[in-house]
Amino acid sequence: SIYRSAPFFIETMPLGVEKSASLALLLKNMGLGPENLMACGDGWNDLPMIRYAGMGVAMGNAVPEVKQAAKYVTADNEHDGVGLAVEKFILEDPQ
After folding, report:
1. Cβ distance 53 to 23 under 8 Å?
2. What is the pTM of this model?
């Protein structure tokens, strides 16, 4: 799979390899499910992971498809978006 995440940046992954599959395996080994996972992303390669996670969080600078799939949109990566999501969904509301 090839993704253009910025005008000057191309990401490549072997066909069929997705972050969501790796996270599913990790969660299974920990005895947990996707409802226990918060995942943050901004690009097309994050889309399956955002859909898989119990709490899919799109960064403010995410592509529209990721924002649409996410349960929550946080600030962009230049304004502590991941940290704000961790505070909101893990530190303040651990359910």
Report:
1. yes
2. 0.86
